[in-house]
């Protein structure tokens, strides 16, 4: 799922470089919705940060709530399911700028995603697999037109930096770092729009499936039975 993993497989197993097939959504032009503001009566001027996906430890979900605590005109929506649901629901009762939304079906997901302003993907560096990860939520955020805040994990940081589609928090536990970057984030996030549109033309399933078809075609050339 990333170049770093492919390169590690070369070193570990002495093989040719594997194909890369990124876990991307189908390409679509998503009209911006306002579901969260309407449902939770969020003021129009508030910037909505969104985390979507599995809610479990190590994903920086609760840590981000701490980072924005006390910030004005900022709302944080956590949408998903998992082991931290009860903790997040309690947090939403205690912290007025945090809301929990249950998971939604893939068919309508990007409508909800587009209802936010900035996507959050700040996993902890718990192992090499996470350091080299490119989570599908990153591509979903972009497809819905959202810039991303990522942690300092190698592949995510590299992707955002090279494509200029968001912001990087090297240490998600460092309040001072976040405070120093906060004004830049909320005043410049809209400037990432053109870069995000370029990324969605590359990182969508219609483009990625071409790689998969090339694998099948090569197998056919080698007379390998593909079922």
Provide a descriptive summary of the structure in words.
It is a single chain. It is built from eleven helices and six strands. The protein has helices at 3-13, 35-40, 61-68, 85-94, 109-113, 128-131, 136-143, 154-163, 175-188, 193-202, 205-221, and strands at 47-54, 74-81, 98-102, 118-121, 148-151, 166-169. The chain starts with a helix and ends in a 6-residue tail after the last helix. The chain is globular. With 227 residues, it is an alpha/beta fold. Helices cover 45% and strands 15% of the residues.
List keywords for this structure.
single chain, 227 residues, alpha/beta, six-stranded parallel β-sheet, 11 helices, globular
Low-confidence stretches: none
SSE succession: HHEHEHEHEHHEHEHHH
Estimate the helix proportion, in percent. 40-55%
Mean pLDDT: 95
Helix and strand composition category: alpha/beta
Number of strands: 6
Q: What is the element layout, followed by pairings?
A:
Layout: H1 3-13, H2 35-40, E1 47-54, H3 61-68, E2 74-81, H4 85-94, E3 98-102, H5 109-113, E4 118-121, H6 128-131, H7 136-143, E5 148-151, H8 154-163, E6 166-169, H9 175-188, H10 193-202, H11 205-221
Parallel strand pairs: 1-2, 1-4, 2-3, 4-5, 5-6
What is the compact description of this entry?
By secondary structure, this protein is of the alpha/beta class. The protein has helices at 3-13, 35-40, 61-68, 85-94, 109-113, 128-131, 136-143, 154-163, 175-188, 193-202, 205-221, and strands spanning 47-54, 74-81, 98-102, 118-121, 148-151, 166-169.
């Amino acid at each position: 799922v990333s170049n770093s993993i492919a390169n590690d497989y070369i070193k570990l197993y002495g093989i040719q470089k594997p194909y890369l097939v990124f876990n991307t959504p189908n390409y679509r032009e998503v009209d911006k919705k306002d579901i969260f503001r309407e449902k939770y009566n969020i003021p129009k001027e508030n910037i909505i940060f969104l985390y979507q996906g599995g809610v479990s430890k190590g994903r920086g979900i609760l840590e981000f709530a701490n980072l924005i605590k006390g910030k004005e005109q900022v709302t944080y929506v956590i949408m998903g399911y998992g082991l931290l649901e009860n903790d997040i629901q309690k947090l939403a009762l205690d912290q007025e700028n945090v809301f929990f939304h249950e998971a939604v079906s893939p068919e309508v997901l990007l409508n909800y995603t587009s209802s936010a302003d900035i996507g959050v993907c700040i996993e902890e560096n718990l192992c090499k697999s996470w350091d080299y990860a490119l989570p599908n939520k990153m591509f979903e955020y972009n497809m819905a037109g959202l810039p991303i805040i990522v942690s300092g994990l190698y592949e995510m940081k590299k992707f955002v930096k090279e494509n200029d589609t968001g912001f990087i928090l090297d240490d998600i536990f460092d309040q001072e770092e976040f405070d120093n970057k906060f004004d830049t984030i909320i005043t410049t996030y809209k400037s990432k729009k053109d870069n995000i549109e370029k990324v969605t033309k590359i990182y969508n399933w219609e483009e990625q499936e071409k790689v998969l078809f090339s694998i099948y075609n090569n197998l056919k050339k080698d007379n390998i039975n593909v079922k």
